[in-house]
Amino acid sequence: MEIKQGEFVFIVGPSGAGKSTLLRILTRELLPTNGEILVGKVDITKIKDRDVPHFRRKVGIVFQDFKLLDDRTVFENVALTLEVQNKSDEEIQKMVEHTLKLVEIWGQRNLFPRQLSGGEAQRTAIARAVVGKPDIVLADEPTGDLDPKTAWGVIQLLNEINSWGTTILMATHNQEIVNTLKRRVIKLKAGKIVSDTKEGKYD
Amino acid sequence: MIRAIAFTKRNIRRTPFQALAASMVMFLTFLVLQIFVILAAGSQTSLRYFESKPQVIAFFKDGISSQDISAIENALQQEGRVTNTKFVSKEDALQIYRERNKNDPMLLELVTASILPASLEISTQSPQDLAPVAEILKKEPVISDVIVPEDLVTTLTSVTRIIRTVGVATVGFLMVFATLVIIMIIGFKIRLKRTEIEIMRLLGASSSFVRTPFILEGLFYGLTGTALAWVISYGLLWYFTPFLQGYLGEVKLLPVNPLFMLALLGGSLALACFVGGLGSIAAVRRYLKI
Fold it and tell me: What positions does the domain FtsX extracellular occupy (chain B) (predicted)?
């Protein structure tokens, strides 16, 4: 399987098919039992542990349950991505402000996660994933906990991010979204690819 | 490093009671350590003082003549062990007594020169000369009593040894205890922040970025506890200086040398860094697998 730079790919399949496992392998959280995974020209299964953080900075991750830190504000949650990259305070201020305005959540920058709606929390999570300008964004069922209207807002945001040239891999169960967007769909079953269609549908 | 310090400050600020508990344990450990060091240094200095000033005091019977005194002094000078002799008359003894008890009129009222004995203070070349000189003096019929500080030196030596042994044992135990407390608190915080650590790792945080704040936290507890212990021990010493000076007499221990206290602070801080650092590094290695 090969995914080109700038593609938007849905990973679909029943629960237990291996969608989340695939994403965890792509973040080097897990190692595959065999095979190789090339990101650019680098096989990430062979990189040393000390180089993993540098690789992960090229990958943004969005989770179904947001995984925001409860004791940090929206701004601080998003800034964390840049803090771990040792960016200066000035850069952090500028990049976080830009991204929060982009995902239309700048007004909530001083709120804590518990004060946010589901959609706002997911926008914060997306802002955290993209603020470091990653090459790839991995989204693990990002609309799973959201109502249909909010879910569409999140998808539109991911679509916009994809339009900048960022590769998006999104694991999802949401049939409506997959069928409407008409993007590449890779279907997994029991850990194997059973279909890979360019403008696929959820079947 | 600046960011690691900022993370450390945030960690401490958000769990103030744990921070206080850890700092207090370190405070108690280092307060005990500093008190023992001060006691050991004080007893050692006293010991050196008495060893460097070997002196026998011979008290005369009443009615002694100046010829008797000169005869004893001449006999001692010929011994070769004696460096100096000083006669203290009854009047001189009263003067010394009055000076030492000038704040207690009751004691002054009851004493007159007639009840105090005249004495001869004899300094010797070395502490080993004290016993032979004392033996010579005891044979003199005009001498009623001879005081040899040899016993005092022996007592001080054993007291110093006890202070050192008890100090090392107590402080050693407290050091182990403090290290375990730091391991426990930092380990607890690592578990508490498991989600945050997991997210930071997925965002690309390096191992040192995740670990450094926890290690700095351990150092912080050690340094704050020790600095506070030093302030308290110095304060106590300063407060009790007038009281202790009365007991110490001619032994020039107090007021304590500020350079000694600064050295004590430096040594304590270095040791605190070791204990705090060791505890936090052990906790990070045990509970933070990256």
Answer: 55-146
pLDDT at res. B250: 66
Total Cβ atoms within 10 A of residue A142: 27
In this predicted structure, what is the pLDDT of residue B8? 86
- Helix segments in chain B, DSSP class H: 2-14, 16-52, 66-79, 90-100, 105-110, 130-138, 150-192, 194-202, 207-248, 258-287
Cα dist from B122 to B74, B88, B148, whole Å: 12, 11, 10
Q: Are residues B18 and B160 in the same domain?
A: yes
Q: Are residues B283 and B196 in the same domain?
A: yes
Q: What is the mean pLDDT of each run of 10 residues along chain B (290 residues)?
A: 83 84 88 87 78 78 83 80 84 83 74 83 79 84 82 75 84 86 87 88 89 90 93 90 74 79 93 90 83
Query: In this prediction, does ipTM exceed 0.85?
Result: yes
With the C-alpha atoms ordered B173, B178, B184, B186, is the resulting torsion angle positive or negative?
A: negative
User: For residue B131, how many other CB atoms are within 10 A of its CB?
Assistant: 12
Residue whose pair of structure tokens reads 């279909």 in the numeric block: A195
Tens-place pLDDT, residues A43-93:
988 889 889 999 999 999 988 888 899 888 999 999 999 998 889 999 999
- Smallest Cβ–Cβ distance between B199 and the set A50, A69, A132 belongs to A69
Looking at residue B290, its pLDDT comes to 63
Res B223: pLDDT = 93
Residues B185 and B239 in one domain: yes
Are the beta carbons of B30 and B171 closer than 8 angstroms?
Answer: no
Q: What is the pTM of this model?
A: 0.71
Note whether A37 and A116 are within 8 A (CB).
no
How many independent structural domains does chain B possess?
A: 2
State which residues of chain A have pLDDT below 70: none
Residues of A in contact with B202 (CB under 8 A): 27, 29, 56, 61
Best residue of B14, B15, B202, B211 to probe chain A, by most A CBs closer than 10 Å: B202
CATH number at residue A38: 3.40.50.300
Chain B residue with minimum CA distance to A70? B196
Calpha distance B110→A23 (Å, rounded)? 98
Q: Find the domain containing B252 and state its range.
A: 2-50+153-287
Whether B116 and B131 share a structural domain: yes
Of B262, B274, B168, B221, give the one whose Cα is nearest residue B28: B221
Calculate the average pLDDT of chain A. Answer: 89
Domain count, chain A: 1
Comparing CB atoms, the residue among B14, B199, B209 nearest residue A67 is B199
What is the extent of the structural domain holding A189?
8-69+125-197
**A99 in a domain, yes or no?**
no
Asked if B209 and A81 come within 8 Å (Cβ–Cβ), the reply is: no
The last residue of a domain, from among B123, B148, B173: B148
